[in-house]
Amino acid sequence: MTIIPRAARSLACLLLLVQVPAQPVLAQGASQHTQAAEVPWLYRNSDVPPDPAWHFGELSNGLRYAVRRNGVPPGQVSIRIRVDAGSLYEKDSERGYAHLLEHMLFRQSKYIPEGAAIAAFQRLGATFGSDTNAVTSTTQTVFKLDLPNAAPTSLDETFKLMSGMVTAPTLSASNLKADLPIVMAEMRERGGAAKRVQKAMQEVFYAGQPLAEREPIGTVESLTSATPKSVRAFYERWYRPDNVVVIVAGDAEPAMLESYVKKWFDGWKASGARAPAPSFGDPVAPQGVDPKNPVGETRVLVEPDLPPSLMYAVLRPWRQVDDTIVYNQGLMTDAIAQAIINRRLETKARAGGSFLSASVNQDDVSRSADATFVSVTPLGDDWEAALRDVRAVIADAVSRPPTQEEIDREVAELDVAFQVPVEQERILPGSKLADDLVNALDIRETVAAPQDVLRIFRESRPLFTPEAVLRHTRQLFTGTVTRALFTTQSAGKASDSELRQALLDPVKPDESARMAINAPPVSFDKLPAIGKPANPETEAPTGLLGIDELTFANGVKVLLWPVQEEPGRVMVKVRFGGGYRSIDPKDAPYITLGEYALVGSGVATLGQDDLDRIATGRKLGFDFEVQDASFQFSAETRPADLADQLYLFAAKLDMPRWDQSPFLRGKAAAKIQYDTFATSPQGVLNRDLQFYQRGEDQRFATPTPARIETTTAEGFKKVWSKALGEGPVEVQIFGDFDKAAAIAALEKTFGALKPREPAVSTADAGRISVPPPSDKPIVLHHHGDPDQAAAVISWPTGGGSMGIRESRQLEILTQLFTNRLLDAVREKLGVSYAPYVYSSWPVDLQAGGSITAMAQLDPRSVTVFFQTADEIAQDLIDHPPTAEELALVTEPLRQQVTRAASSTAFFMSQLEGATGEPSRFGTIRTVLYDYTETTPAKMQALAARYLGKNSSWRLEVMPEGKASGTVASR
């Protein structure tokens, strides 16, 4: 279960979710005589066109619902039950109750015995944590279930169970006693430096409002003082039908889904009148502040392990507004204004100078404030220069209008953002549609069909003038009060008063980052050719689905799978070179820098800014990943952009540029990032676990700032020139594309590449190290809270494509292990919030895999975790699981694989490397069988093979000053 802050409104949601008005406005096209009851409840007082796919209703008890048919993935139904109550609805003595209730509703209810919820939903095929979850925020609590393989019987049972949770929870003393340690463990795991910054931010930005102190997790005092009576009082105040909405989207007829809502929720009765929602207050400037420059609260926070970070907010009171198309056109203009400033700030950062990055973002926060946030990451100690430079760019934006060219560029980007959902409407998952409606309700908004969003946007283009953008820019930076928080690594760098004065000081507008007027056009047809086009030498079916394989004379091999069922989406992957094993260990820091800067260093005649310009109005991507035995470019594009996407990837291999600025920026970012890992046990694991799992191979180490400092631009070019030019190339193109057109594009790009050199192995490239067995833990340290620790126990397994089928059986074993670990250390002992077990199996290497169990807990419980994990492993060796226990794992796995296999992305991942190792085509035919068909005896045999106590090694992350076991040398 997750606690989240109020989510920032994303660009994609800006028009999909439209503000619900306070005053009545007729729906578009409605007669003036239309009765409000004829308008769907979500659209009352709105002229936004209702999305016809949603069916809305309201029960006699006041409960509202919305249902729709959606077949993505096939057979799944997504259910969301939203309660309009979060931590802002709590009294002082109830802090944390909304979240505590979320846990207790899963504990025991009318139709679920105590502690049986996880197993009950697993029997229905739902995986705990992913398919079954809940979220508590400041303003809402949402219970979520994605039911796979939904049939009338399972749907009825699911609605029955979920209705009982919400309408008739037990809330007993034993429930409270069982859930309180879990909640406290969650509180502990979410502590540390990041939590302190979040807390300070709330206190500063929302001073004088409930949001300043109302975190969903609550306080130790209020939670430990909770009683069944006090918790039930909160429940009865807010858990009532007229405060709840049920949302269902999935592969079933709306009438059927509606019938289940009525059957299981219509009998729910509320007692007494509905309590009024509490006031969330308004941001108010302190007395005596200049209304023309209302700088209020400022704070400097010292956090030695976090990078310097400065944020200030221009705050206005949040008000519910009339939901008109005109209002939404204003939101569009706001979005364009922000995009222009952010592009200018990025241009300034790329050029080098006082800040690594900066951005502006408007957000309606928890129905408490309408805020414009400005975030700055300074470079070096001169934070005042960084703040001044960012404010100067903003000062220019509010002093004179942008050019029409700048506006047109951002309009083209927005057009693509709104066009893609129209093209891909048929493949939008029901879970996303349900979540979008939940978010809309939370911020008092409606939803619109993608076609209507795009139409309204395009009809609004004449409104996006320089004068209009300037007006909205000025509104974004005008407010009741401005507040700021600066996080610095050492005391004495700044004071609260110095930060306030820096915001008060006038700045001279900086126009240097504006887009050049009449800049020379950049287009693909003017770029140099990759080489001489070449036809494929062979084209043959693979025998799997409709996938064909092409081979070019230069050695490039391509897998093509045109699929009409995924309209508007094309996935492209390019695997090349030798991955980690081809990098000399002495060059290991360049791996991290490549992940930061390789793409940004340019291709052909295009630098980073040119790449942005040439992609305007297009859907082009450029993700880069380093894998065990290959490197990979990947992107999601559209049919119209496929040829140009292929050019960018091929040009990176054949004509890479080596612009120095991205390298220097990546170097600075890597050094700044390093210290943040030490702020928590999880951060240390993110930094070091793979390094120890791979036998302390330096290529898997996170480079220290000192090692990063030794790198040079010349060294970067040398390492990555070699990596880009070596080894075989495999291209995968899956999705909605014309095969003939794709082959023609391949002939001009990857077919035109020069023949490549074989991957040159380093001296120890073939060495695959694994940690030696030991019951004495490696001990690492973090700088976070003293009550935080982490424990890891790992058993080496294997690797290689010949063992793929066994690796899938190991996934069943790890799920058995996870269920037992959850029950032991979370449910019974309450020492960890979310322990888990996972299996890794490197298909491209012959060793290096592992089964790994881990948990975050308090330092005193580390030994208990190791003992518990050892006991579970030994019991799996000594006794086969029962058939019932096995079914609780295999049925959710069956549903996961079945759902995943409805997407081409699943087959893409399974077939990576298949052109060089054709046996992988065969193993995909057995994937469902391998993940679901097994026996208790087979599981016992696998446990005996891999989980022996003398095979494992262990690691613990302790607070600074505490140690046990073997202290690591790093």
Structure description:
Residues 1-27 form the signal peptide. It comes from Novosphingobium endophyticum. GO terms for molecular function: metal ion binding; metallopeptidase activity. InterPro entries: Metalloenz_LuxS/M16, Pept_M16_N, Peptidase_M16, Peptidase_M16_C. It holds the Pfam family Peptidase_M16_C. The chain is α+β, with helices and mostly antiparallel strands and 970 residues long. Among the domains are: 22-51, no CATH class; 295-425 and 445-504, Cytochrome Bc1 Complex, Chain A, domain 1 (2-Layer Sandwich); 524-748, Metalloenzyme, LuxS/M16 peptidase-like (Cytochrome Bc1 Complex, Chain A, domain 1, 2-Layer Sandwich), CATH 3.30.830.10; 778-967, Metalloenzyme, LuxS/M16 peptidase-like (Cytochrome Bc1 Complex, Chain A, domain 1, 2-Layer Sandwich), CATH 3.30.830. Helix content is 39%, strand content 17%. The chain contains 31 helices and 27 strands. The strands form five sheets. The chain has a seven-stranded mixed sheet, with helices on both faces. A hairpin with a 6-residue loop joins strand 15 (538-541) and strand 16. Helix 10 crosses helix 15, helix 12 (404-423) packs antiparallel against helix 14 (450-459) and helix 25 packs across helix 27. The protein starts with a strand and ends with a strand. Residues 1-37 and 965-970 have low confidence and may be disordered.
Outline of the structure:
Keywords: Hydrolase, Metalloprotease, Protease, Signal, Zinc. The protein is an alpha+beta fold.
